[in-house]
Predict the 3D structure of the following.
Amino acid sequence: MSQRKIHLRANKLNGTNEARSFCSTVMVNGKCHYNNRSKYRFMASEIVSFKEFREIEPSKRCAHCVDNGLITRNKLRKMRGLEPVTNINDAFIAE
């Protein structure tokens, strides 16, 4: 049986929506849309915030979430005038 990976949350929770991971979302025309493929629906794996995701050991992280999360975090860093990074652990931005 394969090990369940921990996913990075892609959306902000406001009490009325459910957490969605970076690997279960797709970008269409610059907007994030939920990927309804059955593979990603009703994920049993944990979906955590960026701060929690950084503290998880790398072998337990979803590789797709790491890749997509790094791209998104570098876009935020660029908008704030910060240099891009190559490691998700270095991509933290104080909010």
Notes: The helical segments are 50-55, 63-79. DSSP finds two helices and four strands in the chain. The mean pLDDT is 78. The longest helix spans residues 63-79.
